[in-house]
Design brief:
Helices cover about 30% and strands about 30% of the residues. It contains five helices and eleven strands.
Length: about 170
């Protein structure tokens, strides 16, 4: 359920704050369901803030699925799974998730810029992604959207698995 995205309108949020706790410093990425901003908590901690597109926020099922992403990601309890630090609603009622601000590039960006990975790099990435997936599966969580865009190569080395929005809990 992708929304028609008005990037200029999303950029208008830059320089504003959410609940007087988080300032939005820059727009990092825009997806079909949400925009991701670099931000800062009032205590100075740098964070990433994923805000559901306002056009979708009126749909209760979409809102629930969006917030569920954070709960599922945290349930994995693995250092290489994205961690959601907070969630709330903006003053306009639009839900948002607060996560660690990662430095680096997605595997998708890395492949587009430099081409294929060396065998050593590929093994490193696959090993770390499989480790996260094994931890998720032990908790009954199936990611369902492992793709280069959802594998993040941090500047300091560890791989991070992102976007648990489509994940399912096995019963």
């Amino acid at each position: 359920m992708a929304a028609s995205v008005d990037r200029k309108k999303l950029e208008e949020r830059v320089g504003t704050s959410l609940r007087q706790r988080y300032s939005l410093d820059s727009l990092l990425d825009v997806g079909g369901m949400a925009a991701v901003y670099a931000g800062r908590h009032k205590n100075g901690r740098k964070v990433a803030i994923k805000i559901l597109h306002p056009e979708l926020a009126g749909n209760a099922d979409v809102r629930q699925r969006f917030l569920r992403e954070g709960y599922v990601a945290n349930a994995v309890e693995h250092p290489s799974a994205v961690q959601v630090l907070d969630d709330d609603k903006a003053d306009d009622g639009t839900p948002y998730l607060v996560m660690d601000l990662l430095r680096g590039v997605s595997l998708e960006e890395r492949l587009a810029k430099h081409g294929v990975l060396s065998p050593e790099e590929a093994l490193y990435v696959v090993d770390q992604v499989l480790d996260v997936l094994a931890a998720a599966h032990e908790k009954g969580i199936v990611h369902l959207d492992i793709a280069p865009a959802n594998v993040f190569l941090t500047e300091d080395g560890p791989i991070r698995v992102l976007d648990f929005g489509l994940a399912r809990m096995r019963r």
